[in-house]
Design brief:
homodimer, about 350 residues, alpha/beta, Isopropylmalate Dehydrogenase, binds 3-isopropylmalic acid, oxidoreductase (chains A, B), cytoplasm (chains A, B)
């Protein structure tokens, strides 16, 4: 089969890690008889430098015309990169928000998994790390405070800023369905996180998720308040299978969960639209401090490419081959610097990509 | 001196823990020559049962007329207590929001401190726990999503819910000043947490906090995004001295920080108005499952009473005497069940109160 992938290298370490993921995809293609073609698309700082905006209409159209999007990372350093002298809607991160909205990527899947081999990096104490954990956070990605109306204005001589948190039942229903569908393929537990003791949007969230749950009698639904969830992720991450939550809570909790694994360089993500289309990117950022030094860990991006094979191309076996190769590399003691520990062999970004390709 | 304290026992373990804090205050009074008089006020579930609402106007007026308020905890169990069959504005927690707004308690101070004696309870690995940490989260408490306009309505046949996140420069300035004043008495570092890459309210927050910082040249101000802060609290809590943030972010982050200490039964809080007035309560909830069993840990409430002595009554020496007595009790190996470990002596709620009184 032939697949057309829009590739967005982006800023910082983006180009390096994306190159390794493409190498892995090509190896999969050769082995399983698929062909992947790539169209490069500018986004973020690199697009500002070339076109004056973080995402052009043409770039969005190219991404839309592809079968799936592979993204490295966007962004630089506030106070250092001149991109941040621009008004907010022209900064690198605005490209990310524009592509999410423009491609209708309403479901962000963020797995947080503790690799046995990387337990030492987990910031939690051994008794917790030993138990392991394996959760997936399903974050609503095109609604809420991120895309509500906002304004800053003087009211009676006082500067006042307003953001709006808006959800309708359809937006909630489709993300809830996504979460339950994923739970059916996992341990059949959904924890829905909100702040229903304060917010109207959370009460609607609560109600709609509870309705959707009726169509999945095998799945256990639990409601959890966001402040409690922030505690439970630290106290007992093993209790979570699928977590579903709105955009801003999902931003905070998925990053917290990533850090609880201790190896954010390993964590992939998928942002899905209705149907099969999706954008795939590592959970970590552009890490400008180590860009261009062959030091970045490409595994999160490679695992994101594996998610692309599974979710957008229905290539389960191929996805599994990539995931197994990553597992094998860890077992073989090969590490980039961010996950390095005593007695392991340290390699660069490129070499890590090669080692994974060899094991496919 | 004579002080008039409004006491709100509330629900669950509230009455037990508040009784121990009063015992401690009376001991302080006797030793240092002050007299504390108490007026009991209903709030939460207990008020719903008696008066049909979680906070009556009279209760609010009594609280307002006092020199300070001591609160136990409010709330029950959703799906079990009939309070939760009521509309949101009549549920127990609505009393908490009403008293915050009614008394103008805009500054919530939540210390998160790792006691050397309770290191074993810290969920983080030893290398992190050994370094220790000692932070105070300064949460804005009367603005943002908690008190913005909200509505749920059908729009073209689709149920839609909206909450608003609003801040004006004056609200931001006064909480920022509070944070910097506190930092001046501590390690002179303020980390301001927002989501300025998305929210207008965060950008205004950022700007006003930066302005306020100019009046405190000795204090280092750092800006941190909320998602990053959720990670850093787990990764390296020792980096934080004073954290200042808006209401909802503060709710999430202060609970996360509490859990990082591993002993939420030890954590006090103060909610301050302009001037000296304040409400003092433990960081933990009403724990209905252990209510009335003499099992609760009264230390968080006792330490909250110590904060009352310091912040509302300017009785620094007296506050220190209480804090030292708590420290002594821990050194002496006395523990309630929630912080129990091998070789320690387990006591009930009442006995813990007695032991602390003996050491004042
Ligand atoms: C860069 C920022 C706007 C973005 C977000 O908040 O969604 C990032 O934190 C993420 O989680 O992808
Ligand atoms: C009970 C709830 C409304 C409250 C809040 O969110 O402020 C609580 O979580 C707190 O932090 O005091």
């Amino acid at each position: 089969m032939d697949f057309n992938i829009a590739v967005i290298p982006g800023d910082g370490i983006g180009p390096e890690i994306v190159a390794e993921a493409q190498k892995v995809l090509d190896t999969v293609g050769k082995k399983f008889g698929h062909s992947f073609s790539y169209t490069e698309v500018d986004m973020g700082g690199v697009s500002i430098d070339k076109h004056g905006v973080p995402l052009t209409d043409e770039a969005l159209a190219t991404a839309k015309a592809s079968d799936a999007v592979l993204l490295g990372a966007v962004g630089g350093v506030v106070g250092k990169d001149s991109w941040y002298d621009l008004p907010p809607h022209l900064r690198p991160e605005a490209g990310l928000l524009a592509i999410r909205k423009g491609l209708g990527l309403f479901a962000n899947l963020r797995p947080a998994y503790l690799y046995k081999e990387l337990k030492g990096a987990c910031p939690l104490k051994e008794s917790v790390a030993d138990a392991g954990f394996d959760m997936i956070i399903v974050r609503e990605l095109t609604g809420g405070l991120y895309f509500g109306e906002r304004k800053t204005e003087e009211v009676n001589g006082v500067m006042t800023a307003i953001d709006t948190l808006k959800y309708d039942e359809n937006e909630i229903r489709r993300i809830a369905i996504k979460a339950f569908e994923i739970a059916m393929k996992r341990r059949k537990s959904v924890i829905s996180v909100d702040k229903s003791n304060v917010l109207d949007s959370s009460r609607l969230w609560d109600k709609v998720v509870t309705e959707v749950a009726k169509d999945y009698p095998e799945v256990t639904l639990t409601h959890m308040l966001v402040d409690n969830c922030a505690m439970q992720l630290v106290k007992d991450p093993a209790q979570f299978d699928v977590v579903v939550t709105e955009n801003m809570f999902g931003d905070i909790l998925s990053d917290e969960a990533s850090m609880v694994t201790g190896s954010i360089g390993m964590l992939s993500s998928a942002s899905l639209a209705e149907g099969k289309f999706g954008l795939y990117e590592p959970s970590h950022g552009a890490a400008p401090d180590i860009a261009g030094q062959n030091k970045a860990n490409p595994i999160a991006t490679i695992l994101s490419a594996a998610m692309m094979l599974r979710y957008s191309f229905d290539l389960d076996e191929e996805a599994k081959a990539v995931e197994d190769a990553v597992q094998k590399v860890l077992e073989d003691g090969i590490r980039t610097i961010d996950i390095m520990s005593d007695g392991m062999q340290m390699v660069g970004c490129k070499e890590m990509g090669d080692c994974i390709c060899e094991r496919i």
